[in-house]
Structure formats: C-alpha cells, structure tokens
Specification:
The structure holds two protein chains of two kinds.
Chain A (H helix, E strand, L loop, with lengths): L1 H56 L2 E2 L8 E2 L3 H9 L1 H38 L4 H14 L2 H11 L4 H8 L15 H30 L2 H9 L4 H12 L1 H17 L2 H6 L11 H10 L7 H29 L1
Helix pairs in contact in A: 2-3, 2-13, 3-7, 3-10, 4-7, 7-10, 8-9, 10-13, 12-13
Chain B lengths: L2 H24 L2 H6 L2 E6 L2 H18 L2 E6 L3 H13 L6 E5 L3 H7 L12 H5 L13 H6 L17 E6 L1 E7 H6 L11 H13 L5 E2 L6 H16 L1 H6 L12 H11 L14 H9 L5 E5 L2 H7 L7 E5 L12 E2 L2 E8 L6 H11 L2 H11 L11 H5 L1 H6 L10 E2 L14 H10 L7 H18 L2
Parallel strand pairs in B: 1-2, 1-3, 6-7, 9-11
Antiparallel strand pairs in B: 3-10, 4-10, 5-7, 5-8
The chains are: A mainly alpha, B alpha/beta.
C-alpha cells in the first residue's frame, strides 16, 4: 500500500506529458478537420450524393415528382441500346453525329491552332495583341455567342451577304447555313473549332516556348529547312500537347450540348442530334414523362465512353513519351 | 453564476428563441397573415401581368393579396416545380397545361383534388367543351403507359380548373401584305388550294411566304398537317392513320394523299423556317418578314406584344382542301391551361376563392382583355364587351357541325408512348427539306408509329 502511495505520484508525473501530447494532438486534428469539414461536407452533398443518386436513378423510372422511384434494373440501359426501338434508333443517330464531331473537331482544332501558335511564337512585334485577339473567342464563348452566330448564319445574315457581294452567290445558302441539312452539322463543327482554337493555341504556344532553342538552332546549322524542323523536331516534341488537345476536343464533343440546343435543337429534321442533347432532352424536354432514368443511364453510358477514351489516351501518352 | 452556468443559460435562451422563431414561421401567429396572402406561379409572362392586375381588384374585394410570378419558358417552369416539390417550396396556386401536366402533377401528389369544390354552378360558367377538363377519367388512366404517374390517380379526381381555352392551327395573315399582293385583305381563303394561291401571290410579289417555328419540328405536324388531314379524310380515316398495326397508315393511299397535299407548301416557307423557334417565327411575322404565320388562338397576344395591331391581322383556321371529305372545318376549343391548388398550401380556402373569382366572368374577362388570351369561362353575350372585338372574333371558329370539328386535344388514338418530335422531324424532311417524297415520308411515318406502338408497354 505504502509502495503504491509512493509510486502513484511518480507515475502520474511520467504519464502527464503523454496525456497532454495526446490532447494537443486531438486538438490539432480537430482544428484540421474543422478546416476541411466544409469542403468535405460540400463534396459529400454535391459530389458523392449526386453521383450516387444519379447512378441509382439510372436503374429506375422517375419523373421528378412522384415520391418513389420504380426500379427497373438494367431496363433503362437495355431500352437505350436495343429494347426500345424508338429510343435505340434515336441513340444510333446521335452516336453517328457525335462520332463525326469527335473526329472532326480535334483534327481541325490541331490543324488550325498549331500553325497559329508557330506564327505567334515566331513574331516579336504585336505578339501580345495578337495573342489576345486569338483568345477572344474563348473569353466571349457562351450562349450569347451562339445566338450571335445564328444571326450571322441566317438566310439574310452576314455570311450570305458577304458571299453575294464577293460574287460567290452560288455558295449562298437560301435556307441559311443551319437550315440546310448538308451544311448544318459541318457549320456547327466549324463553330466548335472556332471556340476551341484559343485554348489549343495557348497550349501549343506554351509547348513551343518550352522547347530548347538550341535544338532548333542546331538543326538549322545542320542545314535543316523550316519544314523539316517542324516535322522532325517540333511536331514530335509537341505530341503530348497534341494528345491533350485532341482529348479536350473529344471530351467537348462527347458532353457538349448547349451549342446544339441553342443553334439547331437537333434539327433540321434531326440532322444535328447528338448524345449530349439527347440526354438533356430525355431529362428536361419530355414534359413529365418518367424519363429521368433514361437520361441518367445515357449519362453513365457517356461516362463509360469518356473513361475508355481517357484510358486510350493514357496509353497513347505513355507510348509517345 | 459560474461560467458553466452562464453558458448553459445562454444555450437554453438561444434554444427557446430558435424554437419560438420556428413556430411563428410555421403557423400560429403567421397563419392568420398567411391566410391573406397567396403566391402563384405561371409559365406565361402575359398571364402573370394580367393576373397581377386582376389580383389588385381581388384584394379590394376580399382582402386577400395574390402575387403572381412568371417562370418561363415551359421547361424551366417544370424544372422549378420539380425542385420546389423536393424542397417543400411550392406556391399556393399553379397555372399548368390542362389535361396532361395537371394529371401528372396531381397523380404525383403535388396538387389537391378539387372535385368537391368545383360544383355544378361553377362548371356551368365554363365553355361546354372545357367543363370536364382537369378531371381524371378511367379512360385516361387506362390509356397511359404503365410507367406513367397518372396510373396512381383515381377516376373523378379534379386537379385543375380550366382557365384559358383555344385552338391550334390558326393562320394569321398580314392585311397590308395581302393588299400589296393584290389580294382581298378581309376575305380568308375558303380552301387549301385558295390558301396556296394566296401564298403564291404574296411570295411572287416579294411580300413573304409562311412562317412557322419548325426548329420545334412538331409544329408543322400538329398545327398544319393534322387539321388538314382530318378535314381531308374525316375523323375515322384520320384516326386510322395512327392505328396499331394498321393497313390504312401514312404509307397507304389515304396517308400519301394527305402528305402530298401538305407538301405543296414547300415553295412558300419563309427562308430559314427550320431554324426558327415558335416565338422567333411569330416575331419574324410581326417584323414583316412573312405574309402568313401559323399558331393558335394564343398567338394573337404575342403578336400584339411584338408590335402588330389586331386590325392589321386576318385570322382563320387551316383551310380544308376542296378535294377532301369536309369542305369546312371548325376548331373545337380545348382548355389550354388550368389553375391548380398545390398539396402543400396552408391557404386552401383563400386559393379556392382566388381561382373561383378569376374564372368568373368578371375576373376571366379582365384577365383575357389584359392578356389577349381567350378564357375557358363562357362570357356569352358579354364576350365582345369584355374581350374586345378582335379577340371575340376568334371565337367564331369554335363553332361548326360536330363531324367537321377538329379536336386537337383528342389523344385517344395515339400510342401511349406518343412522341410528337418523331413525326415532326419526318414531316420537316418532307417539307421544306424535300429529303423525302410523300410516299417515302409515309413509309417512314408508319415505321415510327410502329416502333412507338411497340414501345407502348
């Protein structure tokens, strides 16, 4: 007993510092958690909850009003892919149009932005001004610009007027460039390229400025012409950038729907219907039909497509590097 | 008092104050005030303005104030109602599309059943063809798709009271342009063929052709083709075009003939008609870019808002073909919108009182005159005095022999998975795009109908 009474204060003395340390550690942890809690809560609410809820919705029928969902298993996916002849036909048409955009937009973006970036990189005077000018479409991009493009492309719009005054009347489109089924999709592709060129040009420009000037100068000293320098040195060094630009273009083509909604609503006669617009229409343009599940399922199919493309891109990048 | 004691007391005080604040917001003292104040949403700006003016009169009579908010366009309205339903933020009264949206919202538990409130007297003041609009029938429940929320409703429930009425397929002509093209500005064409000749004259004299918002592709099919085909074939053969497994479909001689007649419009569409939305086409007509414009009775208000004066307009229904079954057509008026009381309102009595007044001849007349939209309330001999002569003149196309009355609201012969965009896209490909001839368009329409019937579960 006496031993205990002597040892206890000593043990307390030995234990006190660790207790304080534990308390301090917990305080630090709590402060840390308090700082990150808002972000975590926001993510749980806006990210995890909506993602999980959207995923579950793809297995249900719901119109946004009824208190409960009706579970249909993989029915929504089956409807989109083959079971519902009406929906499956729409999906096939939208896939065809989206595929054309996915190929054309990245290719044309690279074809336009690379020469622009090389040009901007090679000049010293007015570079900043020109860079701002080329970046304008990105800054002004959005719904207002799409409306402005509609006026420009209308039957009595600026482009038809310009073609007429240049003596190129045969190229005029009496129904407007968006009213003719042969020109509607190509016109939208051109506008998509127009809005994606600024970022691509900036990316290429930063890539060009990162290339060691010594390599280019050495090639010139060895007698290589500008074309050979571009083809054999600059292009290979910019390949990772090209892959990134192409991937951005593909992603925009896969998910974008605003331009199609505002400029053509998928018309004329369904010639510009794309997957993003189809998902939007299933979610919000079907009145109160229980089609939110179909919209969600299409969204997840698009997500799967995007994941596959990302994996393909990562593989390509590894090979390039 | 110790520090801990002070903290406990402070916490208790805060709790009490919080609870008091909650209770005053939820009922109690607020109940009395809330009873005098209603909130209403509509999807039409012109209705909101007119209703707010009428609300001032209503407040003077009853002491109940009503604030009406416009949420436009229609799809945004639906989205807002969807999210408000999830967050318990619905207003007291909604204006909804009649005989469709009201059933879906009501059967989903968002609206109250008004069957016991809308009694015989109240019904009697409505146009006869609209009296039962808003009442769910067993036929409607049976006809909808298995996954439709309407299946949860019960026959006899009333989810809306008819508010505005009208018809689709009304042609508006610019009298100045008719005059400039050498046409009589006061005499509407009697037949489809005369209409085509008038279009030829205005187009030939550079006065413009026909505008319609074909960017919303179903407008051509719903507003022109359907009434034209109905008058051409008569009710039975017209319904047969849409039948399940029919041999009398769009690809049959009947169907092809009607498509051929419709496709005669091809040379006369306003340039770029396929790129215009409904409002944009109306604006183009108001700006003088076309001589003719197709819409509904509700289009008049929008044209006036955009600078046209009613005395410069000649209005008539889609004229029937001289070769068809019916040589005359009338447009059976259908309830276009209805007023509903939300399930979550704390002010049911006041809401019913407001709907009752605004669908009375006095209230409806006031709203109609302000909004230039026809009411579902039968104004009888007072119509011209209450509505003005231009709006009242549109009503004359509502009456005619029953066999030639086109009912745009009759969807009993459609597949339950009916998606009007699909036939709309195909008819746009027929005209103005000319990608299909009438026979091919008919065959494609039959395929679309067959797939919709197949999708109907």
């Amino acid at each position: 007993m006496s031993t205990t009474s002597v040892e206890l204060p000593a043990r307390r003395l030995r234990e006190q510092p660790p207790r304080r340390a534990v308390a301090a550690r917990w305080r630090r942890r709590l402060v840390g958690w308090a700082f990150v809690a808002p972000a975590v809560a926001l993510f749980l609410l806006m990210g995890a909850y909506t993602i999980a809820s959207g995923f579950l919705l793809s297995f249900a029928k719901w119109n946004g009003f009824t208190p409960s969902w009706r579970w249909v298993g993989l029915g929504n996916y089956a409807d989109l892919l083959y079971a519902d002849p009406s929906l499956a036909a729409d999906l096939r048409r939208a896939v065809g149009n989206t595929a054309q955009i996915m190929v054309a937009v990245p290719l044309l973006t690279v074809a336009v932005s690379l020469p622009l970036a090389v040009m901007l990189n090679s000049i010293t005077r007015l570079r900043a001004v020109l860079r701002s000018v080329y970046f304008l479409p990105y800054v002004t991009s959005g719904i207002a610009v799409y409306y402005a493009w509609r006026y420009v492309l209308a039957p009595d719009g600026a482009i038809n007027l310009l073609l007429g005054s240049l003596g190129l009347g045969s190229l005029r489109q009496p129904q407007g460039f968006l009213g003719n089924p042969d020109t509607a999709l190509p016109t939208l592709i051109v506008i998509l390229v127009w809005s994606s060129v600024p970022v691509a040009t900036l990316l290429y420009l930063s890539g060009l400025q990162a290339i060691d000037r010594g390599i280019v100068e050495a090639a010139h000293i060895d007698g290589a012409g500008s074309w050979h320098v571009m083809r054999r040195i600059i292009w290979p060094l910019l390949r990772p950038m090209t892959v990134a630009i192409a991937l951005l273009g593909v992603r925009d083509a896969l998910h974008g729907f605003q331009i199609f909604l505002i400029m053509t609503n998928g018309g004329p006669g369904g010639h510009t219907d794309v997957l993003g617009l189809m998902a939007y229409r299933l979610a919000f343009m079907k009145g109160l039909a229980p089609s939110l599940g179909h919209a969600s399922a299409l969204g997840w199919l698009l997500f799967a497509g995007a994941v596959l493309l990302t994996l393909a891109n990562a593989r390509l990048l590894r090979r390039v590097q | 008092m110790t520090t801990v004691g002070k903290r406990v007391l402070g916490l208790a005080a805060a709790l009490v104050m919080g609870l008091a604040a909650c209770s005053s917001g939820g009922g109690g003292g607020g109940q009395e005030q809330a009873g005098q104040s209603l909130r209403m949403w509509t999807f039409k700006k012109s209705h909101a303005d007119a209703l707010n003016k009428a609300a001032a009169q209503f407040k003077a009579k009853t002491g109940i104030s009503v604030t009406v908010e416009a949420v436009t366009p229609d799809d945004v309205f639906v989205s807002k109602v969807q999210s408000a339903a999830q967050t318990n933020g619905l207003p007291d009264v909604l204006e909804v599309h009649a005989s469709g949206e009201d059933f879906e919202m009501g059967s989903s538990g968002l609206l109250q059943d008004l069957a016991a409130d809308v009694t015989g007297d109240w019904k009697q003041r409505l146009l006869p063809s609209t009296q039962e609009s808003g009442v769910l029938t067993q036929r409607k429940i049976d006809s909808v798709a298995a996954d439709s929320p309407i299946k949860n409703g019960k026959a006899g429930q009333r989810f809306s009271v008819p508010f505005t009425a009208g018809a689709f397929g009304i042609v508006y002509a610019n009298k100045d342009k008719l005059r400039a093209a050498g046409l009589d500005p006061d005499t509407p064409p009697k037949s489809w063929e005369e209409f085509l000749k008038a279009l030829e004259a205005t187009t030939g004299k550079n006065q413009g052709g026909l505008s319609l918002g074909l960017k919303i592709s179903q407008t051509g099919f719903n507003w022109i083709y359907q009434p034209l085909a109905f008058a051409y074939l008569g009710k039975e053969r017209f319904h047969a075009l849409f039948g399940k497994g029919t041999t009398q479909g769009f690809g049959s001689p009947d169907g092809v003939k009607t498509l051929e007649t419709y496709a005669k419009l091809t040379p006369y569409w306003m340039p770029g008609a396929t790129t215009l939305g409904i409002d944009e086409a109306d604006i183009a007509f108001a700006q003088g870019k076309s001589a003719f414009n197709v819409g509904g009775t509700f289009t008049l208000a929008f044209l006036v808002q955009n600078g046209m004066t009613p005395d410069k307009l000649l209005a008539f229904p889609i004229p029937p073909s001289a070769e068809g079954t019916h040589k005359q057509i009338s447009m059976a008026p259908l309830a276009l919108t209805g007023l509903s009381v939300t399930a979550t309102t704390q002010n049911r009595e006041a809401a019913i009182k407001w709907i009752d007044w605004v669908t009375s001849p006095e209230g409806a007349g006031m709203v109609a005159k302000e909004s230039l939209d026809l009411p579902a309330t039968d104004l009888g001999t007072q119509a011209e005095a209450l509505l003005g002569k231009d709006l009242a003149a549109l009503q004359k196309y509502f009456t005619g022999p029953p066999e030639s009355a086109y009912e745009a609201g009759d969807d009993s012969f459609f597949p339950s998975d009916w998606d009007q965009v699909k036939p709309g896209d195909l008819t746009v490909r027929l005209t103005p795009l000319k990608e299909y001839g009438p026979q091919q368009a008919g065959t494609e329409l039959d395929k679309v109908m067959a797939s919709m019937w197949k999708s109907t579960k």
